[in-house]
Amino acid sequence: MFGVRFLKTQPTEYVIQFRNGMPIREGAGLSLFYFAPTSSFAVVPTASISEPFIFTEATADYQEVTVQGQVIYRIADPRRISSLLNFTLGSNGRYASEDPDKLSLRVIDQIQVAMRNELEKLTLQEALVGGISLVTSVSEALRNAPMLQALGLDVLTLSVLEIKPKPETAKALAAQAREDLLRRADEAIYARRNASVEQERGIKENELSTEVAVENKKRQIKETQIDAERSFMERQRLIKQEEIEGKIDIERRKKELVDLAAENSRQEADAKAYGIEVMMKAFATADAKVLQALASVGMQPGQMMAMAFRELADNSAKIGQLNISPDLLREMMTAKEI
User: Would the pLDDT of 242 be above 60?
Assistant: First the structure.
């Protein structure tokens, strides 16, 4: 009515009211009446904006890959971006220019530039498996991008959903990966067989070691027995040798005793023979009567009578007749009994 209108905005919209080219009122989520012929409004959305993207780039080994992802950003400085882009509302309540609609395209262009710079450093396989490092590098590049800083934009999140090569390249990679998996499977089988063989070898070695230890123990026992028997035989030999030496020593002593006894007997016989020889020499020169007298010394009366009768018998030729009285015989018999 009479050009007065009412404007109501959301809390996620930053409103700047201009009159005669000068900002007179600004703020987030304003609700106000204004005079339409002299007023204009720049409404800058401050809510986060999510935009998907997809583009094709080449890697360092000249392989094309398709990068698909999503970016979430927001306008952090509404006054700055309003001075660079046209966020003016028309009379119909819509933006008077296409700048707000092209803002996401500008952000995606910056993402593509940063992504191209990073992919040019990576090979195809590195790009396919390096999604996290790629996102980190591109996010760092976007935070330092001069255009985004000049517009007052803040990239909240960058996500890479898929990095896909060409179908024929994917088939080749799949074949290579399949061959690698098969090779790894073969290596796993070989490793398992080698481990089994190694374990079997270890078991055999343990068995052989056990057998060797048992044989060594048996050999030690036999050697101990042989040493014991040898020691026993040596002791027996020494005992026998000592016995033989003892017998030899006894026999030698016996022989010495026999020799000594024989020598003593010989010397005694020599002494007796010498005495007899001396006596015989002495008797040879002595008178028979003297010898007879010497022989009768110490004789018994009967012995003396016997010698007398012997002399009578020797001289029987000279004796004519001999009478022996009974008294004499009785005396002789009595002397014999005595």
Answer: yes
